[in-house]
Inverse folding.
């Protein structure tokens, strides 16, 4: 009885991967999600439906469907199925595509609130790296376009100033080039962050009671006596012999078995 | 036949067998009259080791009753054990601990006893237990073994008797489940639908070096082309631009335009000073009030054209005339003529210096 939902999910996965089209998968995912919402007053009855919905959404993701809406639905399905690590991972993937998505930010905050952190100390507790809400987010394409436009305006202004020697044109051209420098700097910082993310992908603890160890073996002593619980986030540093060295969001570094974490790989 | 009576008969039969090696009179179980009914010790030898002893001494009957017999799993039911003495008891029964009986411990949660045995009368005791079936597979309340000592039997070694109550059929229903709602923010229950869910968006990647090079080079090249086209299409504008390029000339022209309307002498001196100042800045000339001869010498040193040199000499000669000739002299130029001549001289010089001197 306990394994029935799991078996169902596996069967659904096998079926979805073989024959169903993307639209059919989406329809089934939505139907399972709605059924879960319909049964939301009974957690035991609703959870298998949310888990099935997450399975269908994840099958779409594995087929290459990639957009913030899918990741939000996927994360919500995992969250309501009480699969906290996968929910956090999905929200992060969505935010990578749409960093300004307020729903994704709120859902991630909600999921993080459910993570068990040590009462004392900040082990594993993520730092608030969200930009202030008043700061508008410009997409990288937008930044590129704006920098190009400013560069063009700067060139035209300076050329015209060379022709007619009007001081306002000189000021406008210099300001435009200064803006180009700012935008390019912003873009470079963003590219660096993207490269950093690719080199050190997100890692989420997937089990309760995981200890950070000093080396890649159970023979090494724990670095901290405090265990980590599902949903704690970090960055991958190295992998070796089935072990993962990770740096927690709060800065602590240690090794954990690979099967106890989720790694954000494409 | 109930268990109680069966055990009683077995006890009698054992008593007969035990007495067979004695006198014929003792072949039958002899019912003693207790010599001292109070305080007589119960022997230790012969007690059943695997069953709890009730500490009772006498001759008893026991019955069990359960209420209700249909109950949900893990919900309580009441088991009542009624012990009745059929002869005057020597020691009253004590409450049995059902947790010492494996059958009960396995099938039921047995709550702690919180009430004393109720003695209905001098010969009847009632013990109440609260049991909770552990699972739905429980189908009966097993027999309760009531162990007591019977001093009325002569066979003291078999004086310990065990009475078993009848099993009570029980119907256990599945437990009632408590509905716990799914926890989550309300926004998590909202599913976003539509074709956007199936979009395949590629994460942003920076453009290649080729694209960056094109983006960097195209605007300046376009501007250069634009500049040369503008030069060709608007030559006058080009000349004006060159004239404006000289800051000193611009300042001198501006000063000439806004000069105060003085008398001819003062105006001529001011105009000559403005032009001389322009020469100082433009040609690094140190002479404050040049004569026409010094002007001709200076222009020759800078390889200016003959026409420009003649124009400059004529201007300064005209200034001298305006300053030093009598006012009634008809050849003395007006101030307006001097100012116009100064502007023409500056513009001509700017036009010529753009091609001969560094700006």
């Amino acid at each position: 009885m306990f394994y029935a939902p799991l078996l169902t999910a596996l069967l659904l996965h096998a079926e979805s991967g073989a024959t169903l089209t993307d639209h059919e998968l989406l329809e089934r995912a939505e139907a399972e999600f709605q059924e879960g919402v319909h049964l939301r007053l009974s957690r035991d009855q609703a959870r298998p439906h949310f888990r099935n919905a997450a399975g269908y959404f994840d099958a779409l993701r594995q087929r290459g469907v990639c957009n913030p809406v899918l990741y939000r639905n996927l994360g919500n399905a995992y969250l309501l199925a009480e699969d906290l690590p996968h929910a956090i991972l999905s929200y992060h993937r969505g935010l990578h595509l749409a960093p300004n998505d307020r729903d994704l930010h709120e859902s991630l905050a909600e999921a993080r609130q459910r993570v068990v952190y040590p009462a004392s100390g900040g082990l594993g507790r993520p730092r608030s790296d969200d930009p202030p809400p008043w700061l508008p987010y410009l997409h990288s394409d937008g930044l590129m376009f704006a920098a190009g436009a400013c560069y063009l305006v700067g060139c035209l202004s300076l050329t015209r100033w060379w022709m007619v020697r009007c001081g306002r044109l000189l000021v406008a051209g210099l300001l435009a080039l200064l803006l180009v420098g700012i935008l390019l700097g912003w873009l470079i910082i963003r590219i660096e962050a993207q490269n950093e993310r690719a080199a050190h992908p997100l890692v989420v603890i997937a089990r309760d009671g995981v200890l950070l160890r000093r080396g890649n073996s159970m023979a090494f002593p724990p670095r901290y006596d405090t265990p980590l619980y599902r949903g704690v986030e970090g960055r991958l540093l190295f992998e070796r012999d089935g072990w993962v060295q990770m740096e927690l969001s709060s800065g602590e570094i240690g090794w954990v078995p690979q099967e106890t974490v989720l790694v954000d790989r494409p | 036949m109930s268990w109680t009576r069966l055990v009683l008969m077995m006890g009698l039969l054992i008593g007969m067998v035990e007495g067979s090696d004695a006198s014929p009179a003792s072949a039958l179980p002899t019912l003693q009259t207790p010599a001292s009914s109070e305080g007589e010790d119960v022997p230790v030898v012969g007690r059943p080791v695997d069953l709890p002893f009730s500490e009772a001494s006498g001759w008893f009957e026991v019955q069990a009753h359960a209420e209700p017999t249909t109950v949900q799993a893990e919900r309580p039911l009441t088991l009542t054990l009624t012990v009745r003495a059929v002869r005057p008891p020597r020691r009253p029964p004590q409450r049995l601990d059902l947790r010492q009986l494996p059958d009960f411990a396995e099938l039921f949660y047995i709550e702690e006893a919180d009430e004393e045995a109720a003695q209905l009368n001098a010969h009847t005791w009632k013990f109440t237990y609260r049991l909770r079936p552990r699972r739905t597979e429980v189908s009966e309340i097993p027999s309760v073994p009531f162990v007591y000592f019977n001093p009325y039997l002569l066979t003291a070694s078999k004086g310990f008797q065990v009475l078993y109550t009848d099993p009570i059929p029980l119907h256990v229903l599945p437990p009632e489940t408590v509905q716990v709602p799914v926890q989550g923010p309300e926004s998590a229950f909202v599913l976003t639908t539509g074709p956007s869910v199936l979009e395949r968006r590629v994460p942003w990647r920076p453009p290649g070096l080729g694209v960056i090079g094109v983006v960097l080079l195209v605007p300046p090249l376009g501007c250069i082309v634009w500049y040369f086209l503008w030069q060709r299409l608007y030559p006058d504008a080009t000349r004006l631009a060159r004239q404006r390029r000289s800051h000193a000339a611009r300042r001198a022209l501006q000063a000439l335009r806004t000069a105060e309307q003085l008398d001819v002498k003062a105006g001529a001196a001011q105009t000559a000073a403005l032009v001389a100042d322009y020469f100082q800045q433009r040609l690094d000339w140190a002479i404050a009030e040049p004569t026409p001869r010094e002007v001709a010498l200076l222009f020759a040193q800078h390889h200016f054209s003959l026409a420009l040199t003649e124009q400059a000499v004529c201007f300064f000669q005209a200034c001298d005339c305006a300053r030093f000739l009598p006012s009634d002299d008809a050849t003395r130029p007006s101030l307006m003529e001097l100012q116009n001549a100064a502007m023409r001289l500056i513009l001509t010089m700017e036009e010529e210096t753009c091609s001969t001197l560094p700006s």
